[in-house]
Amino acid sequence: MKTLKIIPFLVFTILFIFGCETKSKQITHKEDYNKYLTIKDNKSLSFARNEIDFWQKKFDAAPNQISYLSQLSSNYSTLFEYTGNISHLYTSEELLTKSNEAYDYSRVSTIRSLARNYISQHRFKEALVLANKSLAIGEGKKETQKLLFDVQMELGNYPEAIKNLNAIRDMTDFDYLIRLAKWNDHKGDLDTAITFMEKARDIAEKYDNKTLKIWSNSNLGDFYGHAGRIEDSYNSFLQTLAIDPNYSYALKGIAWIVFSKERNTKEANRIIDAIAATHNTPDFYLLKSQIAQFEGNKIEEIKNRNAYFSMMENNNYGAMYNKYNVLIYADDKQTAQKALEIAKMEVNHRPTADSYDLLAWSYLNLGQHKKALQIAQKHVAGKSFEPKVQYHLAMIYKSNNLALKTKPIKEELLSSLYELGPNFDQKVNQL
């Protein structure tokens, strides 16, 4: 009789333990990151401003010393990185252009710096012209091939990209490993991408290189998130902040975990507001708009979207936010035509699968289902593994009554809901 009494108790205990483990585990803790939300000083920013003051005075006293312009430009890039103020990026470009003109475009390091500035502005074709100019000069060829890989990836010239990647092959080189990680991520092999990014981080740790440690840890935060390893993602972002307490990208990553995984909209907004106080860029308004949409707060959703467009109007961001603009405009019948026009420009700027996805999505939202399918099958299917692109593909298939093609994508998307965000729960389930 004793045994019979024990068995139900054991069953209850097992079920209780299992039930506790399957409950969503709290990953983030305010005490981990609160200190990074209230930092008053930014040493990197102060240093850059002092450097600008120092080099500007030197250049004013000796305008023939062209090398001072590169020093100034580099520090303006730092200002852009930490503040998000687009005018600093343009000032950096002006200084580099002046420097290159003075050298008659003969110094590869200065040419490459301008090319990287163009990449930040999403002026990829112009960046490619400069990268090829550097290659023709021949000096510092490996550094130029790294740049060429980056540009070719942005332009969707993948055979050229892999050729440049193979040319710099060195499994002990940080720059090679992070690009190898990017290549594998592009192919959809996320596990391999993570392995190479971890190797890169180990090299950064070995040489105690602050910049490389920040870069590798923050990128691992992204990769882990894509792989559903949310706790690892959170810890990587915290490690990034421990190295640089002012690195807002890592705080934004934590805000996404709080919103998408833990569905804590109030806390996510608190983090975003703290970041935006020092690093103000339009995408923060879009994130706040997403959060408001999830809360069912239409007034806040529209208010933040309008704030995004107001910031776009007051600053010249060029093509930097074209993707966001297409996705917003395509969702509204009144602006769907505008989405199509921007998508066409984006395909012209960078003919990648992701750009063609924007084009196909715009046509779908204009009711041109067959046209959308034609573009998607030719330029998107099997060429991009981004969850949002896959969702668009599934919707295009569904609108063309191709249920057999929709079903496997839906199954894949169900495991990518964290990356897509809470507003996609219902959308994916309805596929």
UniProtKB/TrEMBL annotation:
Transmembrane segments: none annotated. Gene3D superfamilies: Tetratricopeptide repeat domain. It comes from the Bacteria. This is Tetratricopeptide repeat-containing protein.
